[in-house]
Amino acid sequence: MNVLPFFLCFLLFSTFCSPSLSEHCNPHDKKVLLQIKRALNNPYLLASWDPKTDCCDWYCLECDPTTHRVVSLTMFSDDRLTGQIPSEVGDLPYLETLLFRHLPNLNGTIQPSIAKLKNLKTLRLSWTNLSGTVPDFLSQLKNLTYLDLSFNNLSGNIPSSLSSLPNLEALHLDRNKFTGSIPESFGMFQGKAPDLFLSHNKLTGTIPASLGNMDFNTIDLSRNMLEGDASMLFGSKKTTWEIDLSRNMFQFDLSKVEFPKSLARLDLNHNKIMGSIPPGLTGVDLQFMNVSYNRLCGQIPVGGRLQRFDYYTYFHNRCLCGAPLESC
To answer: Which residues form the Leucine-rich repeat-containing N-terminal plant-type domain (predicted)?
Structure first.
């Protein structure tokens, strides 16, 4: 009697009917995920998180294709999700991406257990109702390349320890309620200077001179209460793409500034910047520029893209003239 057909039938039956044989999900990770679901009061966003199914097939997460450990947890765009970030997220040791975004009813503080996620590369906690301060323990996450805490209700001082993250490529702290000054250490990032977004806060004081040592690709300090000199952010040898200093109280002589050839976006509106527009700016391939509402004087240099911008780019200055403004 040939037993092969019976064996094959048994194997197929076992595969389809026994979850333990077909499931890839790590048992520890599955247990933690179900705890997270319960902690968030079983939101509709996590309806696919059925304990009878393989967790690697659930929405809002990804498993490593080889180890089958959970490496990404992403929850976003759900007004019905309420509560705080569950402490259990810290029990997913292989997480590389953690995202809670566009969740207006997510409250509380930044969860301390996140400090245990030593493999984390991307942390995005944005567009939520999180409050409190930025904890120093984030500086322990040495593999972080992207840190986004924007559009929250975070307050207090910006911790200087964030500059010790050696692999950071982007730091978003914009649209919060931070006070105090920009840390001196932000001119001494351990690795390459990250894209730095500090706009729409309540930061005061002057820019640390140390920031002049950094070659930021993008730096946005707009809509704060910063003052004094900001010319150290520029330089002909830098490779900066965007500088936004708008709606502060900066005061420096623009005519003495040398601009990077790479600069594509420059926004200086609503400050106390004086001097004239330097001729060197005609050699920069700008896509956007706004120097309105300052104290600039003199003729707008002719050449480059400077005449392609409209009247509103230059208006409300002390005595600027020349196209596209009135002739001198």
So the answer is: 27-64
